[in-house]
Amino acid sequence: MVSAIPYGSDFGLDASLETPMTLRQFLAAASPEPAPAMKRQRREGVQVVNAPPPYFFVAVDQELQPELAETLEASLGLSAGTELPWPLGAVQTGQQLPFRATTLQFAVGAEGSGSPMHFHQDALNLCLRGRKRWWLVPPSEAAFSRCHPLDALDMGTTAKSVKDCFEGACVFEQEEGDIVYVPDMWGHAVLNLEDHTVCVAAEFA
């Protein structure tokens, strides 16, 4: 699925703004048409003109995306419903962790694409290519928002609570090969800083 923000309809956005598309189609598209959004100029070091770039984001399913599912299992040892390798196969501990991956997600985004503030269960996020900026807040400050990170930062006092959520966050950048652990119910938003930033995430319990 391709949209301005991942799972936009789940955040209350018009479902018609989401475009069913395979990864192959997304990568082959010369210039996918972005969804409508507020105009903005370069800020936070990222160029976004008129609308946020489209973001390919999918929950990996063995039946719906067999090739992707097989690739993640073969290269990272990741498969939904199985024991979680630690950390994503990078270190051999000789021990199995008492956690199971409940959801696997795969995303590809252009510079300026991103996810609004949201929260969920524990997750590991591996950046396979590119660079991402994160905003992380504790559960007491967490919120569900449908505002793209750049829109939230541009907001005035009329949406002070949304903007404060970002301004009070722990901010850091994730580079290629870095793994980010997002604790259970911690709020987080993400902004892709390079074209074709690729990540895979595993929520676990």
Automatic annotation (TrEMBL):
Coiled-coil residues: none
Record domain JmjC: where: 61-205
Signal peptide: none
InterPro entries attached to this UniProt entry: Cupin_8, JmjC_dom, JMJD6_ArgDemeth/LysHydrox
Alphabetical list of Pfam families matching this protein: Cupin_8
Protein name: Jmjd4 protein
